[in-house]
């Protein structure tokens, strides 16, 4: 049976449990579980991280832990009873674990490894804490380490800052908000700026001396030296090195490592150096032989210096190699370091090129105790301490030191009968009072232990040696008296014995008879001469002698006159001994009572360090004198006491304050002193107002704290001694003293007056007195003193400094012990509040105000926790609210709106104040109860005041919610803030309902309320979904979901509004929409009805929701642009689709309304917009390809234009699209895009506002700027024709304004564009059809097909690869058939890609004779609406013998929604048309194309445009060879047999046409061979002969003996209806008459896929299918840059297999690197039949009047002259089409329809190198030119379908003689000439131009083209529109309303 557990509540899993039993709960090792029930070895419970899933698990798997249960029962929570640091550590490590793995995934290796180490460290420390064997101090250290590491990790991972007190996390509910803010700020600061250490230490570790010529032991001395003052700053550190240059005692690290301690910050400067002196121990001369002498001397070796400043910049752990300089002249040894510092290095040699002293130097910062903790290894291993000379910057009481430093400076010696100077060595001894040598009390420096004696170095042959050697004598204090130092002088002989002979001595006593020690400074000592055997052990004998020349009596001339002297410098550093006689006089005042006055006067002149040494003795002396003769010395003693007290204020001696405090508490015995002290103090206070000099009085008042301490302690001692006598008298004295103080404080003075400064001094020290007064007086009495004293200050204070001091005084009062007592608080609070209010209202001293307020509110919270009586706390809160709430709100508002100061320190202070005040406001609001709120709201005298208050507090709350209010990681603080805000808002919303509804409605207050609510809900710190589960759980447990609370409040308030809701429609739609985007289901359920309500009220008011719709759309768009780069917005927007899509509640509500249709329509519109915005959001993500971004932006832009009619948004997206194109270098598309905006503007002077990046300017200026930008981009995109149009339009404008300067520039620009058209090369682009199938594609692509313009040089394979890269998850479809529904609905991405052929619109230009290809290339590939793709297939039974019989072609024509190029590189397919081309028509097309190719090559060859003849040779070979081997014969078998003619009577004309073409081909071949013979090189003659032979075979196989008459008399037709003579004419080789023939009608061809060249078609192996499809892959075909008809003859036996045929879309494109010789044939093959030059064979006998008049074809959808159109496009179905052979003039008149000539201003980024080809440059071909001398007319041969009559009667045909000269043709040519594109005539007739739509928005060409082509001048030059007519049946885009003036 399951029993609920009582104590077993919480446990940790010891081993993983799979949970395979029924109801089993799977557990992982380390999980924590909460246990609910128990039953026979099993527990039932849940894992804490997933409390929703409960189950059972074995008890043996769980380790139980003590836990505390909250809310026992169903909703109980369990808190483990363990150290809070352990709890925090556990939860933090769990959070880190997940994030740590993510670091690995994100490849952040560095942080991954660092975090791993820190986590291991924390786990190790956790173990130590859990074991519980640590001492208290060690536990503290471990916790400190843990928290430091936790904080580091949180900071690195961007987690929250944890507020802590004593290493434990703080519960924000248990402390005041102000206290919480302080903790957060403290931790934040600690993280930001570690406090600079004031104490520094230098660590030195001597490694070795590297030198080649050592061989002797060395002594190395280090000290720190001040280069500015030329004095040492520290004692010396002494290291002994052996003969190898290594330390002598390597095992004793303290002998080679030292710490130079207590360096001040002022010592870390550039002119402070580490100086190293090196002494060698050995022979006198470094080069002497070893056996000369066994005596060792200390001799100079070298010196090195290094600046301490260098260590600050160098890496602290670097080893330094110090250069050692040797001293050449020993007389300079004493100043070698000074010279090195002065950079006088040249005077010394480096003691070897590789000599250097290797040392480790490191600067350490902080006090010595801190270093002991941080560098434990350093101190445990051993390090000697090298002290500073003198005391450190801060002297600590209890510090014991007694060091006497003596420097052996110099000596003056006589020769002593020697011929050379002496080698003097000094030996130093310290002797005690008994004359015994003190052992170990002579030290050369730290590092080595002290010795009994010290030997100086020896300077060679020098009677005036300067040693400058410092020694340390650490003599105990008790041995100082009577001790002396003796210096013995010896001459060191350099002779064989090397003996040292004593010749004199000096001595100096350490203490004088009066107790003073040897004074600091230089002393000149007398050298007493003596012999070697003199016994110096008899000290008393020589101590009677004088020791210094200064002390010599005047009568002792003998010693005075001697020249020999010895100088030393002494310096005592002692905490016990003094050298000051005045100090000794004062301490011994009883011995000399007459000197008391003098001694007290001199006390002020004594050095402070001397006074603090004897502080207790000095104070005893002063109070002793006061007790004995107070009348006489009272004032002087008081002044001396003041001097000592103020001395302790100095930072150097401040640590002696505790010494004085201890003295007062324990040693002070002046029970009667209080009377004198009060009396003197009052005397001084009374004199303040009248005194001229206030300095001394100010010193007295500065010391008032300690004076009061002495007064109070004295009185207490007196009371104890006397049982409390004279109590009343004492109280009266104190009251009188305070009356005097109040009087002087009440004086009004200017801030500069001395009295005002004295007042300020008193106010600074006054709060320190409170604690002393409380020792005797009651709390109320002291509070009364304080209130009256502070109240006595004048209210109208002129002194600003005094105001600041007064505020500081208040601050200290509030922080004092006095204020913590509730009794005193009620007395002091009014005073404090009055001062605070005054300062805050005037915005003065805000930092101090914040500090005071913080202290007050922190105290209230503490009192509340300590259980202080509720009424007291409540009353205080009431007082504070009444006085300060309003002013506090105003202060926060003013600070927040104030511009931030520039300086970093000021800015920091400014932020502090804001944060402090905010914390105070929150603390105050949190303390307020219902009663406080009621009183607050009732206190407002009028509605206006309440309204102002509400507006103010709502605004402040909005400021508090700002992200910048607190640091990013202060989530704890933000949550507390939000909790306070929502609580306050709930209280205030009631006031809003009561006071501002119905007739008293106030829009501003309500609007402020709603606005606050919305931004409250949208705060990042409340979006719980983004937090880790543990953090989310913590927040929900503590505060709940505050967003839902606020949402409910919004709903409740909205419902109360009633008809006033209309005021918030549409303004609140956007904000409420933002709330709905929060992914919180409960919040959405609350907000949905508000939307319904809005729609309902809007419908009632205006009958529609236009406003609602507009606002919704604006908001959606702005939210999208705000969310750029932020992944969360993707999720947020996903959530809106359910809201406006299938979300039940809103739709259901709407469906019940009368206005449901418009409501559902609105939802549909918004949903569609959302889909596009979502796509846009996804595509704009970082790393997405430009193609997707552009496509998506186009989709959105068109949606705003056509569906939403949102002009401003439309224009914004135009510019976004422009930027994308520009960045992707799609300059043509960029131009078209910008043109959309340009089209919206007019040439007017209307002013436009600043918009996007445009300045404020007139509409004319903006349009001009846009025009120039567009022209520049068209130029860069090589779309010069379009640029010309805009140049013209601008030129018109400049001309109309007479701006000839700009007009000239514009004309020059226009001319330059014409030049570029003629001179520069343009690549011909490829076009590809792309289908996007499947649901996984973005909305704007899904299940749609597009045609895309490829990049330069981009072939199908490259394009396919690019698309697959853009859509990496897509599957490429391998067939070209339309996919079925399964593909459309598949949950995947399918791409179908194949190449398509453009169908140009501008046939007029393309068919003109003599127009250079540079110009034609533009019209071939620009303004293309329609594209074609052909697929061959077999219909019916396939004849194995002759496949041509059943080979049909399926021709697909795709029409786009917009022409290419346009605002995008791709456009959607609008319409598909499918027609089938019969085998016969197919055959006609193929032969026509081949004939055209042959003509072109022959023409090029005869006009010498070919570099070599190879292309013609290959083409002839291919055709003749194929024809001989059965190509044409197959056609004859298929279509000329009786069966076919009988079965297809309707094809009679077509069969005739095919026969004509076959004969024509033979005729062309004959002429081709003639031309070939003329130009063929010698080595190819055999091939030519073979071709001639095969040609005769071919003729016979066709049965041709002689060409029929219609072939011979074939007239020449001009396609454009006008004969033209070309500029470059050459003799006609083909025809002796110079006439020419033109193919009358070319059936369109389909693009071949794997095409074979004519040469390849001449081989033997055959598969005849490819002969029909004309597949080619060889070099001469590869260069085709567009899918083009096959150029092969149909008689080849050499072709691809049938399965290749069907794979047409995967067209193999060629590369542009093909050989030059192959280009020409290929380029002509690329042209469609009408595009290609046609070589005529015979002259045309027809009259020019026979030219056909243009007319319209009955059912045609497009002009028939288009060579690329499929058969149905040209009239009836393909099967019914006829082609008429122009046999003679008697046939029906030839008719043509010419499409209107319209220059297409679209970009051409073509990919073939057209202009390099001689064929395609200049006019169509020189071959044509050569035939055009004869003035023959031409007509295009197309036959009208039955029943179709020409629109105009045609003139009868008439013949023209062949012999008409070229000159006679001129008038005809001029007369019929069509004006060239963009003729000047256009500009002269500007009014006749129609106003166009922008080209990028123009409509596809209509079904019925105009009968006559319009003249070029009818086109509006400024427009990009290409066709002036439009079909009303085709819907146009919705026009935009003109609102440009606002843009």
Describe the model.
- This protein is an alpha+beta fold and 1943 residues long.
- Helix content is 44%, strand content 13%.
- It has 66 helices and 40 strands.
- Strands 1, 2, 3, 4, 5 and 6 form a 6-stranded antiparallel β-sheet that branches.
- β27 (484-492) and β28 form a beta hairpin.
- The chain starts with a strand and ends in a 59-residue tail after the last helix.
* Percentage of residues in helical conformation: 40-55%
- What low-confidence regions span 5 or more consecutive residues with pLDDT below 50? 902-910, 1124-1137, 1139-1145, 1606-1943
Count the beta strands. 40
Shape, per Cα inertia axes:
extended
Number of helices: 66
- Quick check: average pLDDT? 74
Strand content: 5-15%
What is the C-alpha radius of gyration, as a whole number of Å? 54 Å
**Terminal residue distance:** 79 Å
> Main sheet?
6 strands, antiparallel
Q: Structural class, from helix and strand content? A: alpha+beta
Structural topology:
Elements: E1 3-4, E2 10-13, E3 32-39, E4 42-47, E5 50-58, E6 62-65, E7 67-70, E8 77-80, H1 84-105, H2 109-131, H3 136-156, E9 164-165, E10 168-169, H4 177-192, E11 199-210, E12 217-226, E13 231-232, E14 237-241, E15 257-264, E16 272-282, E17 297-307, H5 308-313, E18 319-323, E19 325-326, H6 336-341, E20 349-350, E21 356-365, H7 368-374, H8 376-381, E22 384-386, E23 402-412, E24 424-431, E25 453-455, E26 466-473, H9 477-480, E27 484-492, E28 500-509, E29 521-526, E30 528-529, H10 539-543, H11 557-561, E31 565-574, H12 581-587, H13 596-602, H14 608-613, H15 615-628, H16 630-647, H17 657-667, H18 673-687, H19 695-702, H20 704-722, H21 727-745, H22 754-765, H23 770-773, H24 779-791, H25 800-815, H26 817-820, H27 822-841, H28 846-865, H29 870-897, H30 904-927, H31 930-938, H32 943-961, H33 971-995, H34 1003-1017, H35 1029-1039, H36 1042-1057, H37 1069-1076, H38 1081-1102, H39 1106-1122, H40 1128-1140, H41 1144-1151, H42 1156-1179, H43 1186-1204, H44 1207-1223, H45 1227-1240, E32 1247-1248, E33 1257-1258, H46 1259-1276, H47 1280-1296, ...
